[in-house]
Write the structure tokens for this entry.
Amino acid sequence: MEHGESARKRGGESDHHDPQYDNQQGEGVNHPEDMPGPDLMGKSYCPYCGGTTSHGQWEGRDRRYCRNCRRPLYDNPIPAVCAVVFDTHDRILLVQRKVAPRRGEWCLPGGFMELEETPEAAVLRELREETGLDGQVTGLIGLKAAPNRIYHTVLVAGYRVAPLSTSIHAGDDAMAVRWFDCQEMPPIAFGSHRAFIRCVLDSRSASCHRNHHN
């Protein structure tokens, strides 16, 4: 989810906008959890040698720099994943969050990547942990950079996942997990998740339109 694991769970916006869908969901761009995170330039110590850091120009940007190590200290987005899953009745799988941020709100199954796992393995692990469902990745929807109050920026990869089992149950960090008809979805907590859902629904609608005219 958009994490920490209590705060490390979930995390953008699509070029495809459905005004009715956007109005229903509400972008919530001023929500505290959507605001940029801490000032990374304020970090005072080098994670490699423990020495104090200074600021300087490196590769055209003001970066933290360790004089002992004689190298810049890069701050990079944290990778996260989420899954768009439909069942045989064309319902979408959503998780109700049990932890901050956005406790009590609904979002896609997902979370942060662990070390030594691929993004595909991460999304299947998170799906299983949060919903009890096994799945198979069928495609990458896209990538979204999302602001995060703890990690500053999260890079979220959205995947299409086909379910390989049928039984679902809420994991430890979820209040509930449920299949929803697309017309009856609750507001979705995170902009990146809304964008991935919108992208998939748009592509499915376009596919149906093409098949209708073939």
Remarks:
- The longest strand covers residues 135-148.
- Residues 1-33 have pLDDT under 50 and may be disordered.
- Residues 40-73 form one domain.
